[in-house]
Amino acid sequence: MQGYLWFVGKRLLQLLAVIFCGISATFLVTHLSPVDPVEQVLGRLSARSNLSPEAIAATRAALTEMYGTGQPILQQYFNFWTRLLRGDLGPSLLAFPTPAMDLVGRAMPWTLGLLVTSTMITFIIGNLLGALAGYNPDNRFLKAFGLVAMGIQPIPYYVVAFILLIIFGYFFPILPVSGGFAMDVRPGLSWQFAGSILQHSILPALSLVLVGFGGWFLGMRALVSNVVNDDYVTYAELAGVKRSTIAGGYVIRNAMVPQITALAMAIGGVFSGTVITEQVFNYPGLGSLLIDAVNWGDYSLVLAVSTVSITAVAGAIFIVDLLHPLLDPRVRAE
Amino acid sequence: MFSILRDLIRYNIEFAIGLALVAIVVLFAALSFFSPVDPTLIYVAIPDQPPSAQYWFGTNSRGQDLFWQLSAAFRNSLIFGITVAVLSRIISIAVGLASGYIGGWVDRVLMFVNDIFVAIPIFPILVLFYFVLRNNMDSFTLALIMACFGWPFDARLIRSVALGLKHREFTRHAVFAGMSTRKVLLEEHLPYVMPIVFSTFMNNMLWSIGLEVTLAVLGFTNLNNPTIGTVLYWANSHSAMVVGVWWWILIPVILIVMTFLGLFLLAISMNEYIDPRSRLRRMGA
Lengths: 334, 285
Prior knowledge:
The complex is a heterodimer.
Chain A: H1 2-32, H2 37-48, H3 53-67, H4 73-85, H5 100-135, H6 140-152, H7 157-171, H8 191-227, H9 231-238, H10 243-281, H11 286-296, H12 299-327, H13 329-333
Chain B: H1 2-11, H2 13-30, H3 66-102, H4 104-119, H5 122-133, H6 139-149, H7 152-166, H8 169-176, H9 181-217, H10 228-237, H11 240-243, H12 246-274, H13 276-283
Helix pairs in contact in B: 1-2, 2-3, 2-12, 3-4, 3-6, 3-7, 3-9, 3-10, 4-7, 7-9, 8-9, 9-10, 9-12, 10-12
């Protein structure tokens, strides 16, 4: 037990370091760049309307105060952290005066739901089929499946999402291709609303699953086909242990360990896939919010989305890491 | 070297297919050096022409000959991928070898930094860079930024090999003979990790070109520079599929799938080659 606590402590330290570095990086990128956010907003405003010089000067002063860009950089860095810890990154310009963090909070459940369900489906299906394919290398169906997985796996998220969009939006319009739920459904705790959400999430989730599962399938197949040749598996077979016990307890359990590590490493990549999927299917999550914020030059919102997504991804990796010792006794003993 | 290549092509059908696909794409991209038109110009051909004898891949709604446009786009994207892969390989070799061979606190510090880089999601960071740099972000800047994030997985892989090499007889001989650490790493250990470097090179190219496509499709790169991603961006923004200019989408998608599949097959077949167990199984021994 003590070993496990040590492990958790070490990982927690790492989690904090990751969050600190990631958020510091977002601060440095945005504040050390030669582009001034105040001038950017002013450029946008004055391009669309005729403002008097006095009004521009007043707007500039107000914006400088709001973003705090007039102060020395260290002071700004300090302020940034204190405001972040209070969960306040200023109002969003996109939906003024809603605080940027509120918008992020509203978008978060959508992304989280999509990401968690599709990652779990992908991970379970991919690993299960991959293990079967590795354990029964002569099965024709699984061999064909491996070829399909190999063909789809390297294609970028965008292309797969777009192909699905063309197929289901253009040729067989049977599934909704845009939005998080139907326009005529009132949001609330009702079966109708839940069904609508489910129906709208099928295509985005499907595109994430299609791209993701091939990697797990191929990885698991390779791992299992190596473990199967290990001495202890041969020994168990000779000793007459049941085949199902060998597959579950001896082979899959040992091959699972590197896959859990890989899951922790894949989460960041899946997140960028979610961003693009949300954009293609117009899904109301963090990705769409980030893209809108960039296109509108909404400084606070961009900062809010990036800090929250860095924290969330690091947190997810931390949680997956905690599962690791439960599968691998060596990590517990370390 | 050539005998390895010959064996791979003979015994490994995936390698052969991958090599063929990549060769086709590279040849196609290389044609852009003989391009009769400047791919950055618009409205130089009749818009929206379907594929014909004059325009092999048709023309798009921006009045560009798609054949030369795509050729230039694939050249730029491949060069981009190679730049990122070379730069990040240099970092991962340096970190991996040093941390595996020197060990101790150097190893701990480097691996701590490594783990931080693994956990930071790169996509928000890239979007931030675009957000502040806007159109000052050319593809070399983007390549530099991506190279800074593309090394940690492979550094860990190289480190695990270097850890094993450290206690081998020849390392001790080299050290007793008075070789400096730098020389031991570059002359004795580097050749052993080269296979990993090659196979991760392909994977890294896949990763960086994929990210570039993602960014460009959202409009977050310099859109006047023809790349795989910007071709898709313009096709999208002119609603090519809806107005019936299907060749503007279909042909790039086919070429993209060929590129990605080819690089992927090369990477996994090289991986298999590195692992002698699976190689023996394939050769039927």
